[in-house]
Amino acid sequence: MLTKFPQALMLGILRGIVQSFKLQRIRTKSLLFSVGLGLSLAIWAVSAMQTVAQNSANPTVVRIGYQKAATVLNALKARGELEKALAASGSSVKWTEFPAGPPMLEAMNAGSIDFGYTGEAPPIFAQAAGTPLVYVAYDPWSPKAEAIIVPKDSPIKTVADLKGKRVAFAKGSNTNYLVVKALEKAGLKYSDIKPAFLAPADARAAFEGRNVDAWAIWDPYLAAVEQATGARTLTDATGLAPNRGYYLAAKSFVEQYPSALKTVLDRVSKVSDWAKQNPAQVAKFLAPQLGIDAAALEVAEKRREYGVLPITSEIIARQQQVADTFYKINLMPKEIKVQEIVWKGNL
């Protein structure tokens, strides 16, 4: 016959079983926490490694936009030195020519190019339009390297005489800014002229065909038309516009491939130093590629400055003035802050 368990003994056994389950639950939770923490750390480590790898990797192709006015990039392309520098890391180079800065930066916005060079105005309009670009360096160029010109026998003698006249220039270009500042100095408003927004090739045809009264243009187009037609300068940019050039890169390229960016800037700087010391050689070297007479190119080379320089607070302030001017005359839809898209890296 089975003996009944005493009540106290039965309660003790039950408490033991419950305590055992509690301890098991604690161990399970601890184990799950440890596993979860381990997985989190592993995921973080993988993510960090991927970021480092991404930032140190090299692109398959570095896509560069250039225009005929950009002597340094033209020389860099012709000499093939960038291709040599990037080949060791497995990257190639693709060059695309543009008639002016604005369409070049439109291509950057579309993701078609990684790096380019323009005058001071195009990146301002591009930033206002939301283009993800970054200022990475600047070129001092020269206020003598752009001007407002008229035919040699034109009755127009001063900038003030442009009132009511048709003036050609590329919209959103550095010469667009020159026109605004020259009119202000002459006591005129931007609305006092009739702008003809034309790319350089079309503007020259209109200028020589007398379909416009004046043309605001930069070198080497300026030197070429002066030599070919004897065009007369109303004013250059001295005291009106700094006429700097800017090296720009797509934001994604800067973030993902800083090493490749520094390689590009290093090679640009080396070619810039060479060009500064050899204006005649540069002109002879580039004449057949640009389709511009070597004598005109040499004039353009001798009146410009060279350099691949870091963006300083002073340069940012001057560029901000350009942006504020365009906003003031309603050419830009909104105000921008140039400082927000300046590269923090080192040349």
Automatic annotation (TrEMBL):
Gene Ontology CC: one annotated term: membrane
Q: Which GO terms describe its molecular function?
A: ATPase-coupled transmembrane transporter activity
- Annotated keywords: Signal, Transport
Q: Where found in the cell?
A: Periplasm
Note the Pfam families from the entry: NMT1
Question: Residues in domain Solute-binding protein family 3/N-terminal?
Answer: 61-278
Which InterPro entries does the record cross-reference, listed alphabetically? ABC_SsuA_sub-bd, Solute-binding_3/MltF_N, SsuA/THI5
What family does the database annotate?
A: Belongs to the bacterial solute-binding protein SsuA/TauA family.
| Its job | Part of a binding-protein-dependent transport system for aliphatic sulfonates. Putative binding protein.
Q: What is this protein called?
A: Putative aliphatic sulfonates-binding protein
Organism from which the protein derives? Chroococcidiopsis cubana SAG 39.79
Query: What lineage is this protein's organism placed in?
Result: Bacteria, Bacillati, Cyanobacteriota, Cyanophyceae, Chroococcidiopsidales
